[in-house]
Structure formats: C-alpha cells, structure tokens
Amino acid sequence: GHVAELIAAGEVVERPSSIVKELIENAIDAGANAITVEIGEGGIRLIRITDNGGGIGREDVPTAFLRHATSKIACEEDLSHIGTLGFRGEALAAIAAVCRVELLTRTPDSQLGTRYCIEGGVGGECEDAGCPQGTTIIARDIFYNTPARMKFLKKNVTEGNAVESVVQKTALSHPQISFRFIRDGVDKLHTPGTGRLKDAVRELFGRSVADNLIEVSHEAPPYRVSGYISKPQYAKSNRTLQHFYVNGRFVKTKTGMAALEQGYKNVLMAGKFPACFLFIEMPNELVDVNVHPAKIEVRFAAENDVFRAVYTAAKSAILNFSD
Ligand code: ADP
Ligand code: MG
After folding, report:
1. C-alpha distance from residue 278 to each of 21, 53, 247, 254, 281 (Å)
2. CATH architecture of 2-190
3. For residue 90, how far is its CA from the centre of ligand 2 (angstroms)?
4. Pocket lining: 89 vs ligand 1, CB cutoff 6 Å
5. pLDDT score, position 284
6. Strand pairing of 100-106 and 242-246?
7. Where are the chain's structural domains?
8. DSSP characters for 287-315?
9. Cα angle at 170 between 165 and 172, to 5 degrees?
10. Into which family does the record put it (predicted)?
C-alpha cells in the first residue's frame, strides 16, 4: 500500500531520456556487454535499445510488463537501501502505457525468439521471431495517447541531447560495456568496452581530455574516491566535464564540485574549471537517494566528510603529479 504509493509518486516516464535510462538499466541488469541505443527525432518518434544480455523467456514476457510484478522492494525500509539498478518493477509497464512498444527477445537456451507488441498497456500475443540472443525494445511515439504530457516535451534536439547525455554518463560508469549511440541514422558514439575508464573518456571526449588526466585513488573510510581529474594546465572554461558518481550512480553534487575545485586552489587560473570523472563509494545509509527516479541531486548525511574525502583525493593526486 504505502510503498506502492511512494513508488507511484515518482513518474518513471517524463521524456525520452527517462525511457532510455530505464531500458539501459534493464540491459545492464540482464548482463549485456554490448548495448546499442538508437533514437529518431530526439527519441520522440523512436527509441530502439538492443542488448546481448540473457533475454526474457517467452513465458515471462507478458508479466514483465505488469506493474510491480518484479519489484525488488519488499518494504518501505528498502527504499533507503537501494543498491541495485532497476528496483521498482514498473519501468516496462510505465513505458508501455505511454508508447507503442515492440519487444524482440531470445534467451541462450532457446532456438527461437519471441516478438511481443503492447500499445497503451494492451498486449498482443507472443509470436515466434528469429533474433539474436538478447533483447531489443522499440518504443515509438511517446505520449501519443496523452497529449497533455506531450506538450511538455522540448524540441527534438533538446530531447536528443538529454538522451545522448544519459548514454554518455552510463558509458562512463560501465567501461566494461560497449555502448553505441545512433541518432537519426548517424553514429554518435561507440565505446570500446575495454573496462578501462580512460578508454571510454577518450571515445566520448577526445584524446586531449583522455591524455591529460591524473589518476585518483583515495581511501578515507567509510569513503573511497577514485577515477580521474584533469591536469591543472588542461582545465576548461566551464564545468561540463565534471562527472560525479556515488555508488555507481551519476549524481549532481555541489559538495563534490566545491571540494574538487578547492583541491586545485592556487594551481588553476581564474575562470578555469577542472574536469573530473570521480567515483565516490560510501555506505548506502550515508546517501539520501531520492525516491524520485529521475532526480539526480544527492544529499549526504555527512556533507563535511564527503567534502574532505573529495578534497583530499584531488589535492593529493595533484601534489603527487609531476609532469
Ligand atoms: P525491474 O527492472 O525493476 O525488474 P522493469 O519493468 O524495468 O522492472 O523490467 C521488468 C522485468 O523485465 C525485469 O525484472 C526483467 O526480468 C525483464 N527485463 C526487462 N528488460 C530486460 C532486458 N533488456 N533483458 C532481460 N530481461 C529484461
Ligand atoms: Mg528496470
């Protein structure tokens, strides 16, 4: 009852990028090491996500689209301990409620795949389909049946940029997965999936960024900060290359930004900003993970401790670096 209401309060589908985020998380959960995201017209007309994960057995296909059928949350308590991706068991149901959805999937133990279509929440029959192992989900015409919500969508280019940003952020936190992004038929990115963060950075932001990073690795129990920050002389004129993750999830954190920049005090020119790809690990109970799935702002139980951990991580990496 109460948990369901809390969950329902957060609408899963706000715009194409929220669909892409959920579908990528499902593909990751399914063990894929290659994920292709394709969009047409900013994702408003078409979203197609293909993975090479474990697939869905035919008998499980219709239930996967039932609301909360698969929720891993047993009680309200669990909401504060959200560790795994895909915890709400309502993404597919929510997406199928507002898009025309087509699913193609095949498990490794089955010769034949399954095709299933669901529109406005109404599913058809499962049909035989020849398809590679894994899952393809196509979501067309977002909000075709809810014009009031369609009105809130921005221009194709803005929605498409938001999708691209989701793919980039996920590719950085999962360098072992090869991500490919195709926008209106044009290949926009293709990470190699080597498992090395720097290789993903090079693909996404270019050689000059990737070749001018300093490695960060700092333990301050119960915190751990790792990843890369830019060499002081390669700072940027804005903060768009500042990427923070907490326990694997992309976040916006003013504390992190301030701590990072404090670490560069006296070594950065005025008006210049460091780049960073920083992963902060901490016990889940020290992070306020917002119940709203689309929110990325975090609050920490001990902001000062997080500040000190990030500051010290950056400062010591800069001090140790000589070039
Ligand atoms: P949740 O991820 O919270 O379980 P979803 O609605 O996102 O809920 O997905 C429902 C179920 O459908 C998942 O639990 C999973 O069993 C199955 N599923 C969804 N996407 C995939 C995928 N790409 N590969 C394999 N199984 C999937
Ligand atoms: Mg999910």
Report:
1. 20, 27, 11, 14, 10
2. 2-Layer Sandwich (3.30)
3. 7
4. yes
5. 93
6. unpaired
7. 2-190, 212-320
8. EE--SSTT--B-EETTHHHHHHHHHHHHH
9. 100
10. Belongs to the DNA mismatch repair MutL/HexB family.
3-state DSSP percent of the chain in helix, strand and coil, to 5: 35, 25, 35
User: Could you give the CA distance from residue 207 to residue 283 in angstroms, rounded to a whole number?
Assistant: 34
The protein residue with its alpha carbon nearest to ligand 1, atom 11, reads 64
Query: Which ligand 1 atom sits nearest the alpha carbon of residue 25?
Result: 2
CATH topology of domain 212-320: Ribosomal Protein S5; domain 2 (3.30.230)
Mean pLDDT by 10 residues, the chain (323 residues): 40 89 97 98 98 98 82 51 52 94 98 96 96 98 93 97 98 98 98 98 97 97 98 90 95 95 91 96 88 70 97 96 75
pLDDT of residue 88: 63
Cβ pair 225, 278 in contact under 8 A? yes
Distance 322 CA to ligand 2 centre (A): 44
Q: What is the pLDDT of residue 120?
A: 86
